[in-house]
Amino acid sequence: MTTYRPIRLLLALPILAASLLLAVPGVAFADCMMPPPVDNVAATADIVFVGTVSATSNGNRWAEVAVQEVWRGPDRPATVVIQGGPAGNTMTSVDRSFQVGSTYLFFPYVDPESGALTDNSCTSTTEWTNDLAKLRPADVRQPLVATPTTSQGFDVGSLLPIGVAVVVFVVLLGVGLMARGRQET
Q1: Assigned domain for 121 exists
Q2: CATH number, domain at 95?
Q3: How high is the pLDDT of residue 28?
Q4: How far is 30 from 21, CA to CA, in rounded Å?
Q5: Residue 155, CB half-sphere, CA atoms under 13 Å: how many?
């Protein structure tokens, strides 16, 4: 009977390990096939652009990206956020992580629930190499230019309430003087 105890223990270890792994909160499992070759996807994907990661968050899974060229899809602002995994402590087996300062050829998709640009290891997003330049389409375009949010000159709009008050005062003063002049005659 004691000779079976080590065998039972060895058989129980994988079951125990699998149970612990499945019991870890915040971990979601997903799987995908190998992404298609970049050459094939560059001409057919809904969204394709080149950009450099300027900052990351959420465990390097969310990237703030300075867009350099838009290859396919709608125009993009000069800076976008790519979510390479879910928010918070939740993780999946297909999360993508980004490196600050690295340039990528992005193939993200729009998440139907949040509307956010999303990416994961199931897409063909790849770090930029010079040989990817041969895939650049003829109609490549620049990102949208951000409009400045601060005024460079004098802000006339802040004087509007004062201007209205002055006009009202002058009108009332004029009406008062006219009424006084009528009383004297």
Answers
A1: yes
A2: 2.40.50.120
A3: 43
A4: 14
A5: 7
* 183 domain residue, yes or no: no
Each residue of 24-35: pLDDT tens digit? 434 444 567 777
pLDDT at position 159 is 67
Which position has the higher pLDDT, 18 or 158? Answer: 158
Determine contact, residues 53/63, Cβ cutoff 8 Å: yes
Q: Residue 70 and residue 139: Cα distance in Å, rounded?
A: 9
Determine the structural domain holding residue 80 and report its residue range. Answer: 46-132
118 found inside a domain: yes
Q: In this structure, is residue 7 part of a structural domain?
A: no
Separation of alpha carbons 143 and 131, rounded Å:
22
Phi, psi for residue 112 in degrees, rounded to 5: -65, -25
E-only strand ranges, the chain: 27-28, 48-57, 62-72, 79-83, 91-92, 103-106, 109-110, 117-118, 126-127
Number of domains the chain contains: 1
